[in-house]
Amino acid sequence: MNAELLTALTTFVLAILVGFAVISKVPATLHTPLMSGANSIHGIVVVGAMFIAIEADEPVGYVLSFIAVAFGTMNVVGGYVVTDRMLQMFRRKPAAPAAEKAEA
Amino acid sequence: MELSVLETLVRVAWVAGAVAFVIGLIRMNSPATARNGNLLSAGGMAVAIGATAVFLAFETREEGLNVAGWVIILAGLALGGGLGLYTARTVKMTAMPQLVSLFNAVGGGAAALIAIDDYLRLSSAPPSLQVNVATVLDILIGSITFTGSLIASGKLMGLRITPSRPVMIPGGRLVTAALVLIVVAGAIYLWIPNLSVPVMLLILAAALVFGVTMTLPIGGADMPVVISLLNSFTGTAVAMAGFVLDNPVLIIAGALVGAAGAILTKLMAGAMNRSVLNIMLGGFGGGEGTVGAVSGAGHSVRELGMDDAAIQLAYASSVIVVPGYGLAVAQAQHAMRELAELLESRGVDVKYAIHPVAGRMPGHMNVLLAEANVPYPQLKEMEEINPEFDRCDVALVVGANDVTNPAARKPGSPISGMPILDVDHSKAIIVIKRSMGRGYAGIDNELYGNPKTGMLFADAKAGLAELITAVKAL
User: Fold this and answer.
1) Global confidence as pTM
2) Do B228 and A35 lie within an 8 Å CB cutoff?
3) Contacts of B390 (CB under 8 A, 6+ apart)
4) Nearest CB neighbour to A31, from listed B37, B109, B363
5) Whole-angstrom Cα distance, residue B373 to residue B369?
């Protein structure tokens, strides 16, 4: 086993522990936005897709990397926007329900 | 290994992105900071993607500009970004779980495509063992997530080819066993090591089929757990793609989401007092013979008229609403809020009791009610609201079933030990329900036989509308 792999595995294990620690504290009320937010984070895969796109040099590679970039971007953009829409509704709640009604 | 200045800066930007993801998730702990946390996370993502683009531009400078590569990247960003933005902006909040599931599918698909592309590029020798293992796992998990999430999304939409009820596949166990055999044999063959594109494609095909056969037999009510699990899978697949490409930010973000999804899945399954394995194997919702003998079917139920129900509610001093899956299905949350506001204007104290698994996604009910402009402080979690049922005049159960069944407190029932809302502690109970049909646990609800309980047989939306009219007429 080389040092680079060990570093990567260390990072992997520590990130898993951070994931456990961070989520255990979130109240059930926010589970849906949380899941949606976490869903957007794995859209980071688009970074990997960009790497394979720039290295593509034949048709199969072009097609696969194009789909991968498009999929990854959809995951990122859609995920964050829909999460923001949800949280926006939560945030203005505690303020003034009366003003809310007037607005609607 | 000495890094160039540029590569060092890009790696620092990736770490900054990862830090933003973690802090963003931490800030999701409370509704007050959650939106800010999500924006921070999005900012981290923008930095990571931007830094990657700059890096690729400079790194490939000497070899000449790779026009095709840049066209692909920019077109992919535009198409994916446009589709994501449009669907996320236009989706209705009730349809949001299927959209999140769809985004999850494309994320998993992208992760699988990276490994496939990387493998096809190999010409002579098989990759090093760690890349080989990561490639197979990435293709396997990413593909299962891709088709599994698409099926889950289709089930939530109620498409005809993917009905929300459990669909039993003839010889399902046999098919599963065959698929597992193909994957295991293929993985061992590749890891020996051998370089074989056909075997890789065989594993890919088996994984794609497995995603379908795994998700189809699961009933609609279990979808929150399934979506959460698939979300965790995608995170893991992305981490594997990180190992394939030797990219630290994919490893960190993927592992973070994988772990977060796993915890959430366990919480959800726990709230239904079932194991994740039990849910994934299906068969609980649809099976007949598995249910233990629970008496209670013999109890006579008392049917309530609309006017009686309206009087009970309007002259109560406190009402606790228990919304469930049925309310979400009937899209009755706006009618629910209207009734609650009407009661409040008459001086009734109204609160909502939210069971952790109410809705089609963890916490979905909170989002639906928040969207219907229900003030956030009125939404109470189970531990908080349960003691209040003792002082409550009327509990109004709309479309919730198993989470209110007192049988869960006694041993010998399939739902024994499941945390429930103490609805039976309130002075009177009104249940709006379409029929005496059972919940997904397939057992009778003892609550309905309780002498304090009155049943209103109606669709949640229509029933609430009639109740509103009846209360107004008082």
Assistant:
1) 0.81
2) yes
3) B422, B425, B426
4) B363
5) 6
